[in-house]
Known about the structure:
This protein has about 325 residues and is of the alpha/beta class. It is about 50% helix and about 15% strand. It is built from ten helices and eight strands.
Amino acid sequence: MMTDPYLSIIVxxxxxxxxxxxxxxxxxxxxxxxxxSYELILVNDCSPDGTWKTIQSIASTVPSVRGINLAFxxxxxxxxxxxxxxxxxQIIVTMDDDLQxxxxxxxxxxNALEASxxxxxxxxxxxxxxxxxxxxxxxxxxxxxxxxxxxxPKEIRSTTFRALRPALVKSICQYSTVNPNINPLIFxxxxxxxxxxxxxxxxxxxxxxxxLIKLFRLMTDNVLSVSTLPLKxxxxxxxxxxxxxxxxxxxxxxxxxxxxxxxxxxxxxxxVLLINFFGGLTLLSVGLLxxxxxxxxxxxxxxxxxxxxxxxxxENAQ
Length: 318
C-alpha cells in the first residue's frame, strides 16, 4: 500500500551534475540514520550541462528520488515552487544543490518544527556563513528590507534552507503571481516562524551564480514583486521635499522682510540645487513606476511560471 513520505526534500538544480550524486547519497544516509521515509525531488532548471542525465541516473537507482526537467530556465525560486507543488511529504524541506547546506543539518530543522506544533516554518541560521563579502552584504540588505516590508521577525534569517508544513506550502502555492519569491510569500502568510543554528560549508566545487547584477535584480524582485513599500517611500519623500520647499520659501521671505541684505543672485545656487533634487526625484519616481508596470504586464500576460518537460519514473518513497 502506497503511503506519503514523512519528508519531501526539494532541490532546484543548475550546473550541478558533478556533485548531485554525492548530495543524493548524503541525504539518503541521513534519512536512513533517522529512520525517516522521504522523497528527494530534484528539479532541473534547464541546465545546459549534464544535470538532467545525472538526475535520471540517480532516480533509476534510488527509488526515493524523483526528477523534474523544466522546459526553460526559470530561476531558483520558480524551480523550487515547481517542487513545492509536487511535494507529498508531511514536512517539506527546501535546500540548495551546492553542498554548502549540509544534509546532516536537516534533522535540526525537522526536529525544531516538530517540537513547536504552533510553528509553520523553521529557517536555518548559519553559524559563520561561507559566502563572499558581496553575497553576505546582499543577504543583510535583503533581511533588512524584509523586516521593513513584511514585518519579518528580527531573529529570523531569510535563507533557502527551511522546513515547512504542508498547510503553509499549500497557502503560498495559491498565490498566482508570475514571480513567486518564496520567502516574502511566507512572511506575508504567517509570523509563526523559528530559526535554528546550522553549519554552513565552504563551496567545494563550482561557483555561485549570484554576481553583483544578479544580486541587485534579486533584491529588487523580492521587494517590488510583492510589496508597495518603495512607492510609499517615494510618496513620503515627495511630501517631505514639498514641505522643505515651503519652509525654504518662508525662510527667504522672513529674511526679505527683515531687510538683511538679500540680493538678486543670492538664490542662484539654491535654485540649481532644488532643480537637481526635484529632477532626480522625478526620474526616480518614473523609474520606480516603470518597474511596477513591467511586473503588472508580466502578470497580465499570464506567462507560465514554469513548464515541466518530462519527469523521471520512480516508485513511491520508501
